[in-house]
Amino acid sequence: MADVTVTRGVVLRETQTKETDKILTLLTEEWGKISVVARGARRKTCKFAACAQSLAYSEWTLYQRGAWRYAREGSTLDLFDGLRSDLESLALGFYLAELTETVAPEEVPVPELLRHLLNGLYALSKLRKPFALVKPAFELRLLCLAGYEPLADACACCGEPEPEAPVLDTVQGVIHCKKCAPPGNGRPLCRDSLAALRHIVYGDPKRLYAFRLGPEALERLGSAAEAFVFAQLERNFKTLDFYKGLAGQ
Fold this sequence. Notes:
Blueprint: E1 4-17, E2 21-28, E3 32-38, E4 57-65, E5 68-78, H1 81-84, H2 87-103, H3 111-125, H4 131-145, E6 151-155, E7 167-169, E8 174-176, E9 186-188, H5 191-202, H6 215-233, H7 238-247
Parallel strand pairs: 3-5, 6-8
Antiparallel strand pairs: 1-2, 1-4, 2-3, 4-5, 7-8, 7-9
Helix pairs in contact: 2-3, 2-4, 2-7, 3-4, 4-6, 5-6
């Protein structure tokens, strides 16, 4: 008899296969990132069709056969309906999922990544936090969890704790004063955007999105966070391009 297990997870990605099946990439608390075959998930009569869509958080009953896990049953816990009522919000949710999938290891428990993703989707869907705030906060905190935490307590050269005209070196992952910053790789911040970056990196994760910034400071934070992701992970994201296209960026 095949081993049967129950787990909870978010669908990071769905891939259509054959006529009615899907292969789901799930982020679970117990096993981390796994692949699951969901037979018949594309049929309208499938009992777990709602669970088998991107960004759905569900409880799954799975069984193992050979090297593959298969879905036997599924019940939704949160579909984040607030995301699905707005295309731009949904596109940003897809980007958060793709970014998480990129840093999540295969078959390794990473409960903190799952919590971070759920909190990000909740901030967009239920709290209706501004996209321009959620995006950089999610990006920077995710990279911290994945081992790319920037050093933001002081200028990496002179040690000044409150550097004038601070710059984030996106390659080295450190803060510089403008006068200490080497050419290239730097994204300018300001006092407020640096304070927000420190809140994201060093603050209570439960209050990750509990800050406000003016438009200019928020734009600086967003530009620095996106450049930091690109420099550290060395890749582009199709979902980000789609989101920015919808947002007119």
